[in-house]
Every structure is written in structure tokens, then in C-alpha cells.
Input
Amino acid sequence: MKTLIRAVAVALVATAAFGTAADAGPRDKPAQGKSLGDKDYSWNANGGEKDEALHLKPDLKNGREVYEVCAACHLPEGWGQTDGTFPQLAGQHNKVIIKQLADIRALNRDNPTMYPFALPDQIGGPQAIADVAAYIGTLKMNPEPGYGDGTDLEHGKKLYKENCVRCHGEHGEGNNDKYYPRLESQHYAYLLRQYQWIKEGKRRNANPDMVKQIQTFTDRDTKAVLDYVSRIKPPANLIGVKGWKNPDFQ
Output
């Protein structure tokens, strides 16, 4: 079954190039007809599959099996696409992966492309979420992520220090305990799209503090700060080797 699902996911990669990206805005209706304007959602509230998964002991072998579905879009290495179509997952914090998967499954994050492949009847319940998050945690990060044009990095650095450090850390390392994602070495184009959706309210599961924080950013500010953070190198022990292929999927 997972092989069939992965084959369908591969076909969707081509679709993504024509505008159906790793996430989609509110104009796209998710499965099962749940309202996209659901007022019951509270950022990072307790309960649900997120809390269940966090208290389970992960099974890396099953995580690898579950990740086979993810690999079609995010690549076997977890490196995503440098054009930002799909984000890099490698290196991302365990709790961030669990939260985002749980939000997508609960329709609190609008992601029509990923949603069908993340359903419990396709990959499993909270245990599968815990397992695949743990497996992703074993993957080293892309040594050559996608960048911007590099023309305004000093401005970006200044903005990052003044606005982003409190949550995402001095080096864009994020915070696992607080569910703040790692930004360093994430693809610039992906960051840019998510940033715009957060600012416009299209990514409904965004931290409300960030939504407020970035409202005054200009287009120049946005491009500069995201280009800067995408270029921050993670610790050497988290970075993979150029050209590495994940042997689990050879």
C-alpha cells in the first residue's frame, strides 16, 4: 500500500510545479469539508494527536516505512527542493514535525497536497507520527539549500537580530521545547512563501506572536531577512555530505 501511495505522491510533484505547493492557501478546500475559518483552533493547544504522539516511544523501523511516503516529495534524504516547492525536513525539531503533522491531519493547517498522504488510514495513528518524526531526526541536513540573491544580507542580519532571535535563536536553530522551527539552511523560496502566508493569515496554525511581529515588514525586509537566515550554517554534526544518497531507499 505504501508503495502505491508513494507512486501517487511522485505524480503530485509535477503538479506542484504548476502552483500546488507543499501547502496551499485558504482558496483550496481540504478533504472532509471542515471549515478553513475554524475559530476553535488555538495555537499549540494541548490535546489531540500531538500530545498522544509526544508520549509514545518511537519505532525507527516503522518510521522509515512511514517516511517512504514522505520521500516522494521531500526526497529520501529529507532535503526537499531548493526551489521551495517542498521544504527540507532533515534537521527539523522532533516536536515541530509532530505538531505540523498533527495540525495537517486535524485540518488546522491547510495543506491539500500533503493531507491525503498523512491520514491515519494511510500511514497510521499517533504512533506513526512519533515514528516518522524520530526517523526524520536521523537525517542530516542539505549542505546546499536554496538561497536568495544575496544582495541585502547585512540588512537581513540586522532585522533578524532585532526581530527573530527571541524565538528562533541566535543562529536560526529554533527551540524544540517551544515548537519553534529551525530556520537555518531552510530553502529561501519555501521560507518566503510560508512567511507571506503567515503574514496574510493563510497559514492558520502560525504562532500569533509572529503574525503580529512581521506585519510592518516591507518586501525588502522580508526578502533580506529570509535570505540571511537561509544562509546560516547549522552545526557541522547536523550537515550531510554533498551528493549523499539515503541508503534506506536504494
